[in-house]
Structure formats: C-alpha cells, structure tokens
Design brief:
Length: 251
C-alpha cells in the first residue's frame, strides 16, 4: 500500500503537470480524490462511465487516464456524470488525468512509445504549441507501404492512410490523438509522412494537395501506449498491482 498523496506528488513531478500547457478541459492532475492508500492502479484512455465501472470491478484504488472527466467543460452533476462520480466515490477510487504532459513525456509518452514501435530512428521533438514541442520527428528507411503495414501491426488493426506524397516513408512526424487538422502546419515543417490518430475529412484532400502522406491510426489506438506505460511505471516505483481497462471507441 502506498499513500495516494505520494503517488500524486510523484506523477505531478514526473509529468511536469504544472509546466506543460494544455486545453482548458484537460484539468491535468488529480481530478477525484479517493482513499488515502493505493494498492492497485488501473490505466485507461478515457474516464467514461463504462471505464469507471470496469476499473471499480477490477479493484482499482487509482484510475489513471489520458482524457479526464471534464472535456465537455462545466456541466451539471446529474445523470451519467453524477453516476460516474458516485460509482468512483462509493468505491473510494481516485482518478488522475494526464493529457499533453503524457503525450510529450520522453520515455512514457504516447509519441515516444509509438515512434519507437514504428522504428523511427533518432526521433526529436517538433511542432511548437504554446511553448512546448508537441510531436516527434525522425527518418524511417523503407517504403510508405511498409510503414502503413507496421502501423497496423503496432496499433492492432488496419489503419487508414492518405498516399499524398512519395512512395518512401522519409521524414516521419508523430503526433498522437486528434492532430490531423494540423496537416498543413506539419507539412510546412518538412514532414514527408505524418502519423496521427484522426483528422477531419478535409485533412485527406488537403494532404493530397500539400504532397504529404498521412497515416490515421485511430485516436484511441494511438493513445493507449502512455497510460499503459504510466501504470507499469507506478507499479515498479511503488510496488503496486496494475492493470489496463481496454474500452476502444473505434475512432
């Protein structure tokens, strides 16, 4: 058993929660206080009601997520939102969320782990966002087709792609999640193939016009890496049990 306060302090420092800017609804850090002690930490991508129920059923004392409870902004504590809070609180389960601080972490982050799994060598930070570098870029030898196939293996299923550029993978940029709308800005940075989770419809024809390849791996699928690694890190650091709640959206 480890004190929740010690785990939260460690996470805040490791992820630089106070330093990394984010979207208003992220509310990075401890979002819901639970019991004073933690024996088991469970990770998930989204703090949805079904996930909270599964985490409670798994015996979690702490649920660590990438997308927290407040993406929709201020809302009445009624209906499903009330049930979600009540389910967690009745079980004494705390909820901690880390969005961009987890995306950009150099070893536990979604970008770093996906880039490594795809075989992108010497990946370096790129793409400025509010004073931080949001993604990673590096060169991958071989064809675009080989990279698309590898992405499907790593992400657990076929991926959608736009072959708007050359046949080689070339310089690959990785920004997990919903960064497809940044295709023009990414192209300006000299990226040949952009790997992300999802994008708006217009990002596909835009990529063709810009002459850049885009691999859409799925928002959910590209962001399972960080929370899994974070739970494993906490288990190793504090001697905890850990697990993962897989609740894919297909998006």
């Amino acid at each position: 058993m480890t004190a929740l306060a010690d785990i939260v302090s460690h996470l805040d420092e490791e992820l630089r929660v106070a330093e990394v800017p984010d979207y208003p609804g992220a509310e990075n850090g401890l979002q819901l206080e639970g019991g004073a002690e933690v024996r088991k930490v469970v990770a998930a991508v989204d703090a949805s009601l079904p996930v909270v129920r599964k985490a409670v059923d798994a015996g979690a004392d702490l649920l660590v997520v990438h997308h927290g409870m407040f993406w929709s902004g201020v809302q009445p504590v009624t209906g499903a939102f009330h049930e979600k809070l009540k389910t967690a609180m009745d079980a004494g389960m705390a909820i901690y969320s880390a969005h961009l601080p987890l995306d950009i972490h150099p070893t536990l982050g979604n970008n770093a782990l996906l880039a490594a799994a795809l075989g992108i060598g010497e990946a370096a930070p790129f793409f400025d966002f509010k004073g931080i570098r949001l993604g990673l870029r590096g060169r991958r030898s071989g064809s675009l087709r080989a990279l698309v196939d590898r992405a499907g293996e790593v992400l657990g299923g076929p991926v959608h792609h736009c072959p708007g550029g050359g046949d080689d993978a070339g310089v690959v940029g990785v920004i997990t999640g919903g960064a497809g709308s940044e295709v023009a800005a990414v192209a300006r940075e000299g990226i040949d193939t952009f790997v992300t989770g999802e994008g708006p419809h217009w990002s596909f024809p835009a990529a063709e016009e810009l002459g850049i390849n885009v691999i859409y791996g799925g928002h959910y699928a590209t962001e399972t890496f960080g929370v899994k690694a974070l739970a494993a890190h906490l288990a190793e650091t504090f001697g905890l049990e850990h697990g993962f709640v897989d609740h894919p959206t297909g998006l």
